[in-house]
Amino acid sequence: KMLYYFIKQNIDKRFHICCTLYKDDYEKLSGDFKLFVDNDIIEVIIADKNLCPHLKYFYAMKKYWDKPIITVDDDRLYDINILNALVSKYETLNYKSIVSTCAPCMSITHNKIDLHTKWCVPWRRLKPNEKSYIAMAEGFGGVLYPPKCFANLDAEIEDNNKCLYHDDLFLKVLAIKNAVPVTQINGMLENFY
Fold first, then answer.
1. What local confidence, expressed as pLDDT, does residue 92 receive?
2. What does the pLDDT read at residue 189?
3. What is the distance between the alpha carbons of residues 116 and 183, in angstroms, rounded to a whole number?
């Protein structure tokens, strides 16, 4: 219950916390998470189709299409300041951009994109305040997607079976198709965990 009161007192009222669960997982709710849901601290969206890691953004982007959406992974503990850092960067931008805590830049060898593991190294991260079409927002760190970021998301999700467990790469493909750049926040990534 201490965690419940901490979150209730410390979450900025501008934020709405939403979690999408596959329909078969909803009945398994228990503990603090159930307390959050029962007391309207967290909204739960029930998904009919299990989109695996794509659950974290797809249904929220559909329901709140006109709002910025922040995604975080459910297997990490985040500092509460990450929300403010993402929103602050988003508010200072005068252009439509995806904002990420960690944005590595793709590398290319002989006109082919290198493996993801080759360009996800610290020295290939985007500099803060720079916008880029070759940088990729990495979801593990926290990402803010602008309103109406991706056109026709319903049609696009049909292709997600090709990359069911690679949501970051799938979202990068959508960003390229929709000509949406990426920007990285200021500060050391490690400060937000």
1. 86
2. 58
3. 18
Interval 52-56 mean pLDDT? 88
- Whole-angstrom distance between the N-terminal and C-terminal Cα of the chain? 22
CA dist 153 and 17 (Å) reads: 21
Q: C-alpha angle 38/73/20, rounded to 5°?
A: 40
Q: What is the pLDDT of residue 128?
A: 76
Q: How far apart are CA 120 and CA 12, in angstroms?
A: 32
Rounded to an integer, what distance in angstroms lies between the CA atom of residue 42 and that of residue 159?
A: 29
Contacts of 143 (CB under 8 A, 6+ apart): 70, 71, 86, 98, 99, 100, 101, 137, 171
126: buried, middle or exposed (CB in 10 Å: 19+, 13-18, 0-12)?
A: buried
Q: For the whole model, what pTM was predicted?
A: 0.85
Residue 173 confidence (pLDDT): 87
